[in-house]
Design a protein that fits this description.
By secondary structure, the chain is an alpha+beta fold. About 30% of the residues lie in helices and about 25% in strands. The chain contains 33 helices and 58 strands. Strands 14, 26, 28, 30, 32, 35, 40, 42, 44, 46 and 47 form an 11-stranded antiparallel beta sheet that branches. Strands 16, 18, 19, 21, 23, 24 and 25 form a 7-stranded mixed beta sheet that branches. A hairpin with a 2-residue loop joins β46 and β47. α13 (about 445-455) runs antiparallel to α14 (about 460-475) and α22 (about 620-640) runs parallel beside α24 (about 660-680).
Length: about 1500
């Protein structure tokens, strides 16, 4: 908003000042030109009076005039044309720009701090982030007014260049100065000539311009004397003659040029003319010769896309400059208003300013001369002008009184006029269009108007208002609308300027005048003057809303410049309200900027848009922001502010735009076009940052390694790690544990304290705090996540990584020694370049860029570099994979592309460990893009040949693995570790007996077999150590050495090894992880080992389930006189479903494995050796087991063969899988045992007897059930092999091949359990386990005591005795005995490892009638109780006698056996009852 140093009253007074014409002789002009000034220019700075002036009104009342200003102008006989005035005003606004380097004005409006100044461009555009710094140092006041010097200059120029008209006299000349030099031969005659010339100009019909106030114009004669030329006496004599001729009040002697042009050059004389001459140069249309216009033609118009239908081409009224003598005629006819954008270049404009300000003015004048000129103006005003005006006012007043018949004084009649009845005024719509009505010069109405104007010019506002009001009535009555509008306008101004404000400002007068000028008179210049005056008055009264409405009302399509200026002022009114309307301010600034652009005022248009951006920025109005930024970019480009243009277009692209695809495409093309122009200015400069596409730096992944090879026939490469795999924290932890396990095993079982896992793929979730390691000649792949936020596709060409490399030698004595930079560029690092990379609309796409290091050192990946462009068309056809075209070049660019870069800046994780880190925001390093390139290492590739994807549970399948060293370094120490070691084996020491090649073993069994010819089931015993079967290394049973030939794999060599697989016992899909570990033959400082990962996915189906129970045999000795026998009952059930295509299962062999027990024979009632199980069938086996004779550390294998071939169970792979399953079972139960040990150790330590008793029930026997399955697949019958393992630990306790499901089977039963499995095979909702608080019982159970001592009765099964003979004898001789006595031997065997005290009690304690019936006539003879001490594993016999009194069947199992440990104080004794009755048949003969 216009901010004035002067008040509104002073502005209005200076807008209408007395005009004085100046007519100078040529010699007088020559004298003044010595100072580079004309006469009017010479006196212009001194035209304001510094003292008060007094005059009397028609009532002879004294009137005081303050700060009176006059205007002295050369006589111009031709009025300026409207086109010339518009050209002048346009240039005034063009040159008036915000001054550079000034402190910004800030308007605090609500929550906004609006920067309105020369810095507004920087402060409002999005790229200027520190604009709030300009607020520092400002006044703390909450209200500021923004300066708009271009509007002030425009307004001043408009008022000064407004041509004089007949309906008003404010722009008419009141007096005329006739200036003659004293050096002329006849000065008086020259005065006479000038006087005649003035008279001819005023009264001749030849001249209609300029306008004169009254016919008798005041002529003031000025004699100009050049002091430096001497001849003062002559000048004085001429002046005396002038005084006699014209009077002392009508002439003046002005002496100037007291200083010679060459003297006193060092004296500093003020230059008061500079501030006026700059304006005068503009108004006079003096062209800037040193600054030609920079013309930008419309040849590039096709590159600009109109936004929202707004045409940005400048529109200026192209009227011809047909001038005669007016100074505006200096411009050529071929002006710049031809449809092209003309911009004054900054350099030429500055040069023009320097040329105008650098020319010295008043060089021949001294300060005394300045005072003389000032005194001359005061004398002219005091003695000539004001008396003339006073006299004219009196004359006009007398004429009006006499003609109107009014009272003597107009003042006395004022009250009568206004106090009487008022005639209602007609509305403006009711009046006729009589704007063309002309009054004769002597008309009373014009005389009143003339008097009013004279009173207004001399600040007599009361009288002026009265006259204007009277004239207004007369004009309205005559319907002279042009005259009436002028009277209304000045009446409103006079009312406002009246001292003491006796009446309020009649704003409706101004509204009527504006409407009349605009609608009826069609004179927009006069209407604009009314608006400018009224707006200032309203703003001074804080009526900003009314002022804004008034300014907006005058905007129209006939003048873009005027509309732009008024809209801008209206916008400033909105933010100066008591409640600032910031959004209205921004909206009208946008409108003003648009009109500025149409008027060719590019700088002002840019400034308006930038100021409006302060409001729209960050408020979610994306469409408005896009429009503003687009216009800012275009205007900046037009003004050759290319950096600002790039930044503005960049802001459009980086926001989440809601524009249509076509509009976004236009924005993008604009940006590319502007950016290309910027890059052409500095082709050798650094690559700038590109805004598109977005890069998610945190999602950047770095992969160290080569691409995975695809499957070749039956070969399947190890899965390892690839960028196609998603990160899983759980799996990552599993791999870390596996690597730590194998590293500890390679380090002789010692875990490394500083262990760090190998990281092949780094992402946002990995530990990136340390520098990753790369290997020379092995590629590094960087996956960059690009996102296209636009709805149009982006085409990136020549896409590659930007890097920095520092060569270092890590194997030198000085570790990390710098290498001489003998090679650079591609010799150090090779970079892959992607020729075309298309990102569709709103697509997130990954680009994988590769680097190939050729030297050791430190690599830093900085970012990506590419050419950004678009393709022809805005969409990509559906169904076409963009990746297909990368190598086909099917994308056709529209030829608009620019080259730039984007940096990859990754922020590390937030630190939250120490107190300082928790209380502050600190981030750790992220070094995933800073790898260290180490020297060459071996590189292993693993291929699995004929690797199955589906197996039966327990099925054994033989496959082969190929190991290949694809590097130039030999590898050694190859190991493999897995969490499921029971799944695979490479064979033990006996593996060499099996065929090595896949073709040789295609139709062979996976087992080592021997053909048998015996027709009976027998047992074959062998022994083997667990170390022979590759079950592990040291204390790491999961780590297995891979049996490489000579333990080394040479560069380029490969080897195939057999590998046996066993299907897991659990049904379902299994992921089994393998981690291959290997080392280099030569040790490295940076990288000690490498690993290779593989995940095998196996789907297993049901096959068999095995249940086994072990009991002690009742017989202490068998036929072979071998004691301590066991019976093993094995139940095998076929639970396979028909889906697997299995026809039937054959049990071909049952083997045992133990250090103490061995299977001896099968006790089967059926003579059929072949055991077949169809679907849902169950088979039962009873096997006899005996204690091994030679107890050793090795395991004893015993095979019971049911078929024609014996499988050597002590060789690979049978023994391998047995031992691996055994160790896996031990590992699973170790945790539970440890928990129980911790809870029960305190109780069991003092009572070790409990442990000894429990140990009696423990056995160490493992059962291996080997089977064959006949499968029909593709009309072919296949034979599958497999084995199941059952571990027997406790006598009488069932053991299963699927231990994890026993809880369900015990609860539900086998049949119910199978139904449950069919309904929900993956059901895992129920977990049955012992609570942690469960304590171990301190007292052994009855079953455990029953197995402490084993008893056996030996007696004849049938005994014949003659009871009748003895009865007869009894009758005859009572002293003869007729009882049947049978000898019985009781064998007692101590099953524990300690001495046991045994008590045998032979007394009967029958509790039921049945026992009484059986035992009624049976008794033991001899002692009824025996006490024995049985040593460790001792067998003792006791001879007993049983007495029978009659024949029958008797149970001899009545002895009760009590036992206790001999070294215990507490007696543990319980009854030892036989599980089976000992029946004897006593026959009577």
């Amino acid at each position: 908003m216009a901010q004035r140093v002067q008040s509104v009253q002073e502005f209005l007074q200076d807008s209408f000042v007395p005009l004085v014409a100046a007519l100078c002789s040529e010699e007088a002009e020559r004298v003044t030109r010595r100072n580079n000034l004309g006469f009017c220019e010479l006196v212009k700075p001194f035209c304001r009076l510094t003292s008060e002036v007094h005059m009397r009104d028609p009532n002879n009342q004294l009137h005081i005039i303050k700060n009176l200003k006059i205007a002295v102008n050369n006589i111009i006989t031709q009025p300026p044309q409207p086109g010339a005035i518009r050209k002048l005003l346009n240039d005034v606004v063009t040159v008036s720009q915000p001054a550079e380097g000034l402190v910004a004005n800030v308007i605090t409006a609500g929550d906004y701090d609006l920067n309105i100044s020369d810095r507004s461009v920087k402060a409002s555009v999005p790229w200027y982030s520190s604009w709030k710094d300009t607020l520092m140092g400002l006044n703390t006041s909450t209200f500021y007014s923004a300066t708009t010097p271009w509007f002030e200059a425009y307004r001043e120029s408009l008022l000064q260049t407004m041509p004089a008209s007949d309906h008003e006299f404010l722009n008419h000349y009141v007096a005329c100065m006739l200036v003659v030099s004293s050096s002329e031969p006849e000065p008086v005659e020259q005065f006479l000539k000038l006087s005649q010339e003035q008279h001819r100009i005023q009264h001749s019909s030849e001249y209609s311009y300029p306008k004169w106030f009254i016919p008798n114009t005041l002529k003031y004669y000025v004699l100009l004397h050049d002091v430096s030329a001497g001849e003062e006496q002559r000048a004085d004599s001429v002046y005396e003659e002038m005084k006699q001729r014209y009077g002392t009040q009508g002439c003046y002697l002005l002496k100037i040029n007291s200083r010679g042009s060459n003297r006193g050059a060092d004296e500093q004389i003020p230059d008061p003319w500079s501030q006026y001459l700059q304006k005068y140069n503009i108004q006079s249309q003096e062209p800037f010769e040193d600054g030609p216009y920079t013309v930008i033609s419309n040849k590039n118009a096709d590159n600009f896309i109109p936004l929202d239908g707004l045409n940005n081409d400048p529109k200026v009224d192209g009227l011809s400059n047909n001038f005669k003598t007016h100074p505006l005629d200096h411009t050529s006819d071929s002006s710049c208003f031809d449809g092209t954008d003309y911009i004054k270049s900054n350099t030429s404009l500055n040069e023009s300013k320097k040329s105008s300000t650098g020319t010295p003015h008043g060089t021949c004048l001294t300060l005394t001369d300045h005072d003389r000129i000032r005194q001359f103006i005061q004398e002219f005003t005091f003695r000539g002008l004001l008396p003339h005006i006073e006299k004219t006012i009196r004359q006009l007043n007398d004429q009006l009184i006499s003609r109107k018949g009014l009272s003597r004084s107009l003042f006395s009649a004022t009250k009568k006029w206004f106090s009487g009845s008022k005639v209602p005024e007609k509305s403006i719509n009711e009046l006729k269009n009589t704007s063309g009505l002309l009054y004769p010069p002597e008309a009373p109405e014009l005389q009143i108007r003339k008097m009013a104007d004279l009173c207004f010019l001399v600040q007599h506002y009361d009288l002026a208002y009265s006259c204007y009001h009277t004239a207004k009535k007369d004009f309205l009555n005559d319907q002279a609308m042009l005259y009436a509008a002028g009277a209304l306008e000045m009446a409103a101004v006079s009312a406002f300027l009246q001292p003491g404000a006796p009446r309020p400002y009649p704003a409706h007068y101004m509204d009527t005048a504006i409407q009349t000028y605009r609608d009826i008179c069609k004179n927009m210049m006069l209407a604009e003057r009314c608006v400018l005056l009224s707006a200032e008055i309203l703003k001074s009264q804080s009526k900003y809303s009314e002022a804004a409405a008034l300014l907006i009302r005058l905007t129209s399509e006939d003048s873009d410049l005027r509309s732009a200026l008024l809209l801008e002022q209206a916008a400033h009114c909105f933010i100066n309200m008591k409640s600032p309307m910031v959004r209205k301010f921004a909206f009208h600034m946008i409108l003003a900027g648009h009109r500025y652009s149409k008027a060719g005022q590019k700088k002002h248009a840019l400034r308006c848009y930038c100021q409006a951006m302060q409001v729209y920025k960050g408020k979610g109005w994306s469409l408005a922001e896009d429009h503003i930024n687009f216009t800012i970019g275009r205007q900046s480009f037009t003004l050759r502010q290319l950096d600002n243009a790039v930044s503005a277009f960049r802001h459009i692209l980086i926001n989440d735009s809601k524009q249509t695809a076509a509009q976004q495409g236009a924005f993008l093309r604009e940006y590319l076009y502007v950016y290309r122009n910027v890059s052409q200015l500095s082709p050798d400069g650094p690559l700038p940052q590109l805004p598109l596409p977005y890069i998610n730096s945190s999602a950047t992944r770095v992969f160290f390694g080569h691409d995975r090879r695809p499957a070749e026939g039956e070969k399947q490469a190890a899965t390892h790690i690839s960028l196609d795999q998603e990160y899983d924290s759980e799996f990552s932890q599993q791999w870390k544990e596996l690597e730590e396990q194998v590293v500890a095993a390679a380090n002789k079982g010692t875990a490394l304290s500083n262990f760090q896992p190998t990281q092949y793929c780094l992402n946002r979730y990995s530990d990136n705090s340390r520098f990753p390691l790369g290997v020379v000649k092995e590629q590094i792949t960087v996956e960059v996540a690009f996102r296209n936020p636009l709805k149009v596709p982006l085409l990136l060409t020549d896409l590659s990584l930007l890097w920095k490399f520092q060569p270092k030698d890590f194997n030198s004595k000085n570790n990390g020694e710098m290498k001489d930079l003998e090679t650079c560029g591609k010799d150090m690092i090779g970079a892959e370049v992607i020729s075309e990379f298309l990102i569709n609309s709103e697509e997130t796409k990954m680009a994988r860029l590769k680097l190939f290091p050729h030297q050791t050192g430190e690599l830093h990946i900085l970012g990506v570099v590419y050419n950004l462009g678009t393709i022809q068309g805005t969409t990509v056809l559906d169904g076409i994979d963009p990746s297909d075209g990368l190598h086909m070049g099917k994308y056709i660019s529209n030829g608009m592309s620019v080259r730039g870069r984007q940096d990859l800046e990754i922020q590390g994780p937030r630190l939250n460990n120490t107190k300082e880190e928790k209380t502050s925001i600190q981030y750790g390093p992220d070094r995933r893009l800073d790898p260290i390139i180490t020297e060459e290492m071996p590189l292993l590739e693993v291929f699995f040949i004929n690797f199955p994807t589906g197996l039966l549970c327990g099925e054994i399948r033989k496959t082969h693995v190929e190991f290949m060293n694809v590097s130039n370094c030999p590898l050694t120490g190859l190991k493999v570790v897995s969490k499921r070691p029971e799944f695979f084996t490479f064979g033990g020491n006996s593996a060499s007996l099996t065929p090595l090649s896949p073709s040789a073993s295609e139709h062979c069994s996976a087992y080592k077999t021997v053909v048998t010819h015996s027709t009976s089931v027998y047992s074959v015993m062998t022994s083997a150590a667990s170390s022979n079967f590759g079950i592990g290394i040291g204390n790491q049973p999961d780590v297995i050495d891979v049996p490489l030939p000579n333990s080394v794999l040479l560069p380029g060599a490969s080897v195939q090894l057999p590998m046996w697989l066993r299907g897991p016992d659990e049904e379902g899909v299994h992921e089994i992880n393998f981690l291959f570990y290997y080392e280099s033959v030569r040790k490295h400082s940076k990288m000690c080992h490498r690993v290779l990962r593989h995940t095998a996915v196996i789907c297993t189906s049901r096959s068999l389930t095995v249940q086994a129970t072990m009991y002690r045999s009742n017989a202490l000795e068998d036929e072979k006189s071998e004691g301590d026998n066991m019976l093993v009952f094995v139940d095998v059930e076929n639970i396979n479903t028909s889906e697997a295509g299995v026809k039937e299962f054959h049990i071909v062999q049952v083997s045992s494995n133990s250090k103490n027990w061995e299977l001896q024979e099968s006790i089967n009632l059926s003579e059929d050796k072949d055991i077949k199980l169809a679907n849902r069938e169950k088979g039962k086996l009873c096997l006899k087991a005996a204690r091994c004779k030679n107890s050793a550390e090795n395991y004893t294998f015993a095979d019971i063969v049911f078929g024609s071939e014996q499988i050597i169970s002590s060789t690979s792979p049978c023994a391998d899988f047995f031992f691996r399953s055994l160790f896996s079972e031990l590992k699973r139960t170790r945790t539970q045992q440890n928990m129980q040990t911790l809870q029960g150790a305190a109780k069991q330590s003092p009572e070790s007897a409990v442990g000894l008793i429990q140990k009696c029930n423990e056995v160490d026997l493992n059962i291996i059930v080997l089977w064959k399955a006949f499968v029909v697949e593709d009309n072919k019958q296949l034979i599958l092999e497999g084995q199941h393992h059952v571990v027997l630990h406790t006598l009488g306790k069932e053991a299963f091949s699927l231990p994890q499901k026993q809880g369900f089977k015990k609860i539900l039963g086998n049949s119910d359990w199978e139904d449950l499995e069919q309904e929900s095979p993956d059901m895992g909702l129920f977990n049955f386990f012992r609570p942690e608080s469960t304590s171990v019982p301190a007292r052994p159970s009855l079953d455990q005591f029953s197995n402490l001592i084993k008893t056996s009765l030996h007696y004849p099964e049938t005994f014949n005795h003659s009871f009748h003979q003895k009865r007869r004898l009894l009758l005859m001789c009572l002293f003869f005995c007729s009882l049947c006595i049978v000898p019985v031997t009781l064998l007692l065997s101590n099953c524990s490892q300690a001495d046991v005290d045994v008590i045998i009690d032979l007394r009967h304690k029958a509790t039921s009638p049945e026992t009484l019936e059986i035992h009624g006539s049976f008794t033991w003879l001899g002692q009824t109780q025996y006490k024995l001490l049985l040593k460790n594993q001792e067998v003792s016999s006791l001879q007993l006698k049983a007495c029978f009194v009659h024949a029958g069947i008797y149970n001899l199992g009545t002895p009760r056996v009590f036992a206790k440990l001999s070294d215990q104080v507490t007696l543990f004794e319980t009854s030892q009852q036989n599980s089976m009755p000992a029946l004897i048949i006593v026959n009577d003969i």
